[in-house]
Amino acid sequence: MILTPSSLKDLARGLAHTHALGEKVEAVDLRALNRVLEHAPEDMTVIVEAGRTVAALQADLATRGQWLPVDPPDADQMTIETLLATNQSGPRRYGYGVIRDYVIGIKVVLADGRVAKSGGRVVKNVAGYDLAKLFIGSRRSLGVIAEATFKLRPLPEAEEIVCLPCESLDRANELIDASLESDLSPVVLDLHNCRSTITDQSPLTLVQGFAGTREEVEWQSAKARELGGSESGALDYDQQFRGDSNAVQRRSVLPSQTVETIRALGAVPFVARAGNGLIYYRGGPAPPKPELPAKLARRLKDAFDPKRILSELPS
């Protein structure tokens, strides 16, 4: 069954009906639940329905000089619900963190139609259980996220992306270490081999992004170029890489192991969050399966979705 609710109550009724019938929910289309319910610029918080796209929300917030510090792929198509359910992030993850760092309240419709919520409207609150950490990344296996409250940040006055060409993985490793040991504070620290974005003969590019006041950005960009950066750039390599129709695999390692892990993958296209140890790649060996707490996962599924009408828990 595909649900297309027009309101929170409609979503709750639809799930309750499906639960009573014991039918599988194939998809939930939340595009009609797309309102910004409350934006408090003075408190730097926003309450938004989960069907609004990330790009639309960012545009709303930008009118007041604020933003939600995440940059997932396909932001113009990705809804807040998808952002939360799949725990997506982008190149700026290194400097700003992940979406769960900014959730202060959440409202979820459970498999049987009950509405659960936790958190509140202000940054400092201890209202209820922290459901956000349970539902973020659960891929709609325990309930459907219908509404979220986020804390925000001011838009930076300036941002600049500096590209450092690397002729080898050894050189890339040297530049990453030099950056980490310097006084630089990049919000982006990526390594990639997306050829169409590289203008010289170097097979690799280390990308550093800086954001803040104009003076801070100018100083940091100049220091980065002293390490070997020769040009300004953009973050389009990430969207280009993800736009390929072939499946993307992911490995998560210690940041210090990023380059050696890339070396072991062989000649595969990749984009790596060099500061976080996340490597996205195509082809090559499959990533090792994580050891998940299977018993705990089953207990959660039994508690939240005993009839198994929602998606299975991520494996």
**Structural class determined from secondary elements:** alpha+beta
Estimate percent helicity: 25-40%
Beta-strand content estimate:
15-25%
In spatial order, strands of the major sheet run 13-10-12-11-15-16-14
Number of domains: 2
Query: What is the helix tally?
Result: 10
Principal-axes geometry comes out as globular
Distance between the termini: 23 Å
Q: What is the CATH topology assignment of the largest domain?
A: Uridine Diphospho-n-acetylenolpyruvylglucosamine Reductase, domain 3
Low-confidence stretches: none
The whole-angstrom Rg is: 21 Å
Sheet of most strands: 7 strands, antiparallel
**Taking all residues together, what is the mean pLDDT?**
91
**Architecture of the largest domain, CATH level 2?**
2-Layer Sandwich
Order of helix and strand elements from N to C terminus: EHEEEHEHHEEHEEEHEEHEHEHEEH
Write down the CATH class of the largest domain.
Answer: Alpha Beta
Total E-strand runs: 16
Describe this structure in words.
The chain has 315 residues and is α+β, with helices and mostly antiparallel strands. The protein folds into two domains: 2-155, 2-Layer Sandwich (Uridine Diphospho-n-acetylenolpyruvylglucosamine Reductase, domain 3), CATH 3.30.465.10; 158-281, Alpha-Beta Plaits, CATH 3.30.70. 29% of the residues lie in helices and 24% in strands. It is built from ten helices and 16 strands. It has helices at 8-21, 54-62, 80-86, 93-96, 131-135, 169-181, 214-226, 236-243, 258-265, 294-304; strands at residues 2-3, 27-28, 36-40, 45-49, 66-67, 103-110, 115-119, 143-151, 153-154, 158-166, 188-192, 204-212, 231-232, 249-252, 270-273, 278-281. A seven-stranded antiparallel sheet has the order 13-10-12-11-15-16-14. A five-stranded antiparallel sheet has the order 3-4-8-6-7. Strands 1-2 form a two-stranded parallel sheet. Strand 3 and strand 4 form a beta hairpin. The longest helix is centred in the first third of the chain and has 14 residues, at 8-21.
